[in-house]
Amino acid sequence: MTVQFPADFVFGAATASYQIEGAVAEDGRRPSIWDTFSHTQGKVADGDTGDVACDHYHRFGEDVALMKQLGLDSYRFSLAWPRIKPDDGSVNAAGLAFYDKLVDELLAAGIDPVVTLYHWDLPQALEDRGGWRSRATAERFAEYAAVAAGHLGDRVAKWITLNEPYCSSILGYAEGVHAPGAQEGEGALQAAHHLLLGHGLATQAVRAAAPSVEVGVTLNLVSVQQVSQSPADAEAAARCLLIGNLLFTDPVLAGRYPESAREVWKPVTDFSFLRDGDLETVHQPLDFLGVNYYSPSRPEAVEPDEPDPSRRAASDLGFRQQQRPGEYLTEMGWPVEAGSFTDLLVWLRDTYGATLPPVYITENGIACPDDVRSAGRVDDQDRIRYVRDHLGAVRGAMAKGVDVRGYYVWSLLDNFEWARGYQPRFGLVHVDYDTLERTPKASFDWYREVIASREVR
């Protein structure tokens, strides 16, 4: 079956600064929380760090040439905050110069750049002052956003404030599996709120610095599937929807926190960090919403890990993810079910109606055990199947009236996959981490045909 996309539908690929750039101590870049976290023993698989990553900092020309070969309409990448404004002091001109060169190279190749301001690499100097628990960090973020947009806004038309604030707050400050590695109750919810406040302030700052650009935010959202009709599993599904989606979508798209939030988190916080006017700031008009999606969520009820509610992390809400016997799991341990992607996009439309702006799929992809042939060629049929099926799911949502305007595969390159290190590979391009040689995979050639034809077969 052939699925046709409109001629103006945007096909792209995405990366993130800490995952590919390397050069962590060059040209004035200072440490981020991920430098600190990855250098802390036991935090990252195999003791991996992002010190070199894919060395994109020195090889960006080669990588842009690969993007041109692929035929990308657009490339989504993030700026490294600690390259540009390492603390709350002066601006690092050398850091801006790198992104000048990258943006100009992309434009020369006919590729539209899309900038993400924050993909998790908070300057360590700001974490030392409280990080996202602190309201001041949201203010510093807006200052950094103004500098970046003032410098690049003449050439970059689309700006994303945050990537996946759920991961930054819940994985980083509640579960402790991402930087900065905290396991907190109120601190994680403070972080979530101040990330959203930072989004609102940064949106205002970007528009003031570059009035003609478009601004959005990227959220990683879940398609929640209730696993049984029991009251306990129904409640687990509601809590999963709250922490995975509504904690972020309601403030951004509706200017409110969900009614259930205060009750669910009453044991750990009184929400005193929420000030008058904050939600109006968070609820900025958006030009688009970025959606990252990988897998369905199937919460089943369990007893909380911490019996004392006052000591629970913000994520300890009495559920775990159910896995079905025999189903295919990605290298990340995630089940694959493309139809759930359509369900999520329709849920967004039905929940927020006319307030939902146009949607771009800013990440979607799979880590799978790539078959590396003797000649270095990778025949990644699992990846082709995954992207094909999920593009079909996107087109299905469009047929149901959801305004989706583009799709960015994750990822262009194999890269540093956060706490998993270098073992999971998401790229269309294989990276030999010893030599840093790039080799396009079978999925690269397949995606190139999709982009050229606007068809998925």
UniProtKB/TrEMBL annotation:
InterPro entries, per the entry: GH, GH_1_N_CS, Glyco_hydro_1, Glyco_hydro_1_AS, Glyco_hydro_1_beta-glucosidase
Organism superkingdom: Bacteria
The entry's keywords: Carbohydrate metabolism, Cellulose degradation, Glycosidase, Hydrolase, Polysaccharide degradation
Top-level EC class as recorded in UniProt: hydrolase
Gene Ontology molecular function, alphabetical: beta-glucosidase activity
Binding site for substrate: 19, 119, 163, 294, 410, 417-418
One matching Pfam family: Glyco_hydro_1
UniProt keyword Cell cycle present: no
Catalyzed reactions: Hydrolysis of terminal, non-reducing beta-D-glucosyl residues with release of beta-D-glucose
GO biological process terms on file: cellulose catabolic process
Region (Disordered): 297-317
A GO cellular-component term linked to this record: cytosol
EC number: 3.2.1.21
Annotated catalytic residues: 164, 363
PANTHER family for the chain: GLYCOSYL HYDROLASE, LP05116P
Family: Belongs to the glycosyl hydrolase 1 family.
Official protein name in the record: Beta-glucosidase
Organism listed in the record: Flexivirga caeni
